[in-house]
Amino acid sequence: MKEPLNIVSESFKVGKVGGPNKVITNTISGLNKIGYPFEINKDIRHFKYNWIHDSIEGLIEVGINKTPALIGPNIVVLPSDLPSLRPSLVNCIYLSPSQWCIDLWNICGFSECPIQLWPAGINIEDFNLKREVSDRSDVMIYFKRRDPLLLKQAVSIVNKMGLNPKVIKYGEYTETKYKETLSNSKFGIWIGLSESQGIGLLEALASGLPMIVCNVNSLFESPSKNDQIFPEKLRSFKPSCSPYFDNRCGIIINDISELKDTIYEISSNLSHYNPREYVVENLSIEKQARELLSFFDILKQSHPGYFSKPAFKSKGGDFRISLRGSLINKIFLIMRKTKTVFRIIKR
User: Fold this and answer.
1) What is the pLDDT of residue 308?
2) Helical spans, DSSP H, in 53-147
3) Cβ distance 79 to 108 under 8 Å?
4) Could you tell me the sign of the dihedral formed by the alpha carbons of 250, 256, 262, 266, in that order?
5) pLDDT digits (tens, 9 = 90+) for 280-321
């Protein structure tokens, strides 16, 4: 009998829209595809397999109970964002969505528990769109929280080349509109910030749309005061806005000055690209669901006593944080709010 997986997820509970919600919904779709049993937001004490997707409360509880569990990838951005009074996570595995994120955490000195690479699956069936664009001039320009001047320059270049820019701004479109734009575009231009995985970009690639990606050169390229504030020691760190990408997907450029020549190159060789093949090969929801479950084999090797216990007879009730956990979480929330206020004042 398969050991059921208990998933503790804030995004699923409140139905938040965005990357974390795609991580949980796509993974659930993958688990359903492979026929693996799971529960959502149940008491972790009644399960041997626990995955704390994005819940600080769940992270605190597995620490309190010394439960070997999978944690992440949507809990915090940096190790310093974790609750400072949390019990040790030494029995756990922290999941990171890309190699550059692992490198970042290593630079920050995180060594409390092992970090394993795990990107979520992409719903390739949902983005299997009909694309007949050989005689069209539409070009999708996806813009996410970069310097507005970059968008202005990109639109101007596309217009001057006799093409029709179709701008998609992060947070200002529906998925229906996104799919329509993907279906009708010859290729796309992606102007975004660093991405831990880049699910939106991967969905575009899954539709078959070749992309020109305007990469970032640092973690400090957002003009918004509402975005994550990184410590100065990370100023020279080089992230990526397309950590999952190869030459089948399109072309990555490092400066907007390269855009015009790159448009000539990609538009002259559209038939040479096959971005959907890359996503199908590397990031299907079935493949990534199996990879997620495979990490419990590592936990079993590290904690044979815990996993060799007789199976629990009851699944218990819904997940609830303990009194001790609630106190730790309240202190964490106060400290996080205070830190945010000081950062805003400092800016």
Assistant:
1) 87
2) 56-64, 99-107
3) yes
4) positive
5) 999 999 999 999 999 999 999 999 999 988 766 555 689 999
d(CA 128, CA 231): 41
Tell me how far apart the alpha carbons of residues 316 and 79 are, in angstroms, rounded to a whole number.
Answer: 31
Question: How many whole angstroms separate alpha carbon 225 and alpha carbon 238?
Answer: 21
Omega before 73 cis (within 30°)? yes
Which residues, at least 6 apart from 128, have a Cβ–Cβ distance to it below 8 Å? 206, 207, 276
Residue whose tokens read 């990609």: 266
Q: Which residue has the tokens 């975004």?
A: 192
Residue 133, pLDDT score: 65
Q: Residue 205: what residue type?
A: L
Q: Are 277 and 212 in contact (CB under 8 A)?
A: no
Amino acid found at 29: S
- 6 burial level (CB within 10 Å; 0-12, 13-18, 19+): buried
Give the Å distances, CA to CA, from 281 to 107, 195, 244, 286, 346: 31, 21, 12, 11, 46
